[in-house]
Design goal:
This protein has 2 domains: 6-73, Erythroid Transcription Factor GATA-1, subunit A (Erythroid Transcription Factor GATA-1, Chain A), CATH 3.30.50; 83-391, Orthogonal Bundle (Retinoid X Receptor), CATH 1.10.565.10. The chain is 53% helix and 8% strand. The chain has helices at residues 26-38, 64-73, 90-103, 121-130, 149-163, 179-198, 201-205, 208-235, 266-291, 295-307, 317-341, 348-377, and strands at 6-7, 14-15, 18-19, 22-23, 83-84, 110-112, 115-117, 139-140, 172-174, 243-245, 250-253, 382-383. The protein has a 3-stranded mixed beta sheet with strand order 6-7-12. A hairpin with a 4-residue loop joins strand 10 (243-245) and strand 11 (250-253). It holds the Pfam family Hormone_recep. Residues 5-83 form the Nuclear receptor domain.
């Protein structure tokens, strides 16, 4: 029996059935389901709230804000609430995790000559204690479908980015870096990343002795990706803009903000870090602005960063095998995302651009370590945080 195809009321693609009680294609239904389940908040690509969802451009996904708005306007509704079915509620998980921040009294940084002194041991102890916890919350929805590990990571990273997404009016453009403010930011940032890892099933399953080296590698590379993404969201897509979101509520202008503190020489530091600044903008931030990755793509990048362990010390052979399987599985999920949700059949170029962002972050990490080693050897400056176990 022939079933006449109708148009999806969201994007005008052919559809043969009802989803969420309306004529909608599977891709838009999947998009709506994930958005509601993860409580995602979007911004309009054009800033108008009136994007054309029926005209597709190869290589460019539909505006998620306008797509979600259209889903609501045509009457899509979730009849079954998404619920956490773990042994404890999300609030209990967060409370149990946050207790660690009350146990430890972190060091107060201070500058002595050309050295930034900071006792890293309390922070490292807090990370090592919390990193062995299991805060995975099994999220189930319609028909009892459980989120995959990649979707778990998407759920947690979306919450992380939304919680720390600043408003333009709340961000201060500073002309000099404050070491105390930066270290307070890093303490909070690192513990939040630990929470993301312990809520991610694939990470929880690896041996305990592997968790710290994997986390250490992940945080150092992902920090560049996440800060670049938040900078893009906040300041827009103009590639000549030299502003960079350094902390949650402070931004720097790379061409104007002073980097030196104490007795350090500003000109020496600028010469040392100039190549890193150029690489940051030329190979990471500006390509990201051109690509405009979705949150799902950022999560795919994060997974690749976490499990690309070839150059990481103290990684067991079985962990390398697990990492290989995770990366392959994530690539398959990304394929399904491109084909069925954003409908980009020829996505090879976009996928290649995502992997280039991973390579750029890893290259920036190596360059930073080299620059810090040179700074220490020639007595330009020294910082305890970047020479500790956490940044090896």
């Amino acid at each position: 029996m022939y079933v006449e195809e109708e148009q999806c009321l969201v994007c005008a693609a052919p559809t043969k059935g009802l989803h969420f009680q309306v004529n909608a294609c599977r891709a838009c239904a999947a998009f709506y389901r994930r958005s509601v389940k993860s409580k995602l908040v979007y911004r309009c690509q054009r800033g108008t709230g009136r994007c054309d969802l029926k005209t597709k451009t190869n290589g460019k996904p539909l505006c998620r804000y306008c797509r979600m708005k259209k889903c609501g306007n045509i009457g899509m509704r979730m009849e079954v609430d998404w619920a956490h079915e773990s042994t404890c509620s999300p609030a209990d998980i967060d409370n149990s995790f946050n207790q660690s921040k009350e146990v430890y009294k972190f060091s107060v940084p201070h500058v002595d000559g050309k050295r930034l002194i900071y006792d890293t041991q309390p922070l490292i102890a807090a990370i090592k204690e919390n990193i062995h916890k299991n805060t995975v919350a099994t999220v189930k929805g319609i028909a009892g479908v459980t989120l995959s590990p990649l979707q778990q990571m998407c759920h947690e990273l979306t919450k992380f980015c939304n919680q720390h997404a600043p408003n333009m009016c709340d961000v201060e453009l500073v002309n000099k870096l404050d070491s105390k403010s930066y270290m307070k930011f890093m303490e909070n940032y690192l513990l939040r990343l630990v929470k993301i890892c312990t809520s991610y099933e694939d990470f929880v399953k690896i041996n305990d002795d592997q968790k710290f080296p994997v986390f250490r590698h992940f945080y150092q590379c992902f920090h560049y990706i996440e800060r670049a993404y938040q900078t893009m969201i906040l300041f827009g897509y103009e590639t000549t803009d030299l502003r960079y979101l350094f902390e949650f509520s402070q931004a720097i202008d790379v061409g104007m903000t002073k980097l030196a503190s104490g007795d350090s020489n500003e000109d020496e530091i600028k010469r040392l870090f100039q190549p890193i600044k150029e690489r940051m903008f030329d190979h990471l931030l500006n390509p990201m602005k051109v690509l405009r990755p979705t949150m799902f793509e950022i999560v795919y990048i994060a997974v690749n960063v976490m499990w690309s362990l070839i150059d990481v010390n103290d990684i067991a052979p079985e962990t390398h095998e697990i990492a290989k399987e995770i990366i392959e599985r994530s690539a398959n999920e990304l394929h399904n995302y491109y084909i069925f949700e954003v409908r980009i059949p020829n996505y090879c170029s976009r996928h290649s651009s995502l992997l280039k962002l991973v390579a750029a972050a890893e290259s920036l990490l190596r360059s930073k370590k080299d620059a810090l080693l040179i700074a220490r050897f020639f007595n330009i400056f020294e910082t305890d945080f970047f020479t500790c176990e956490l940044n090896q």
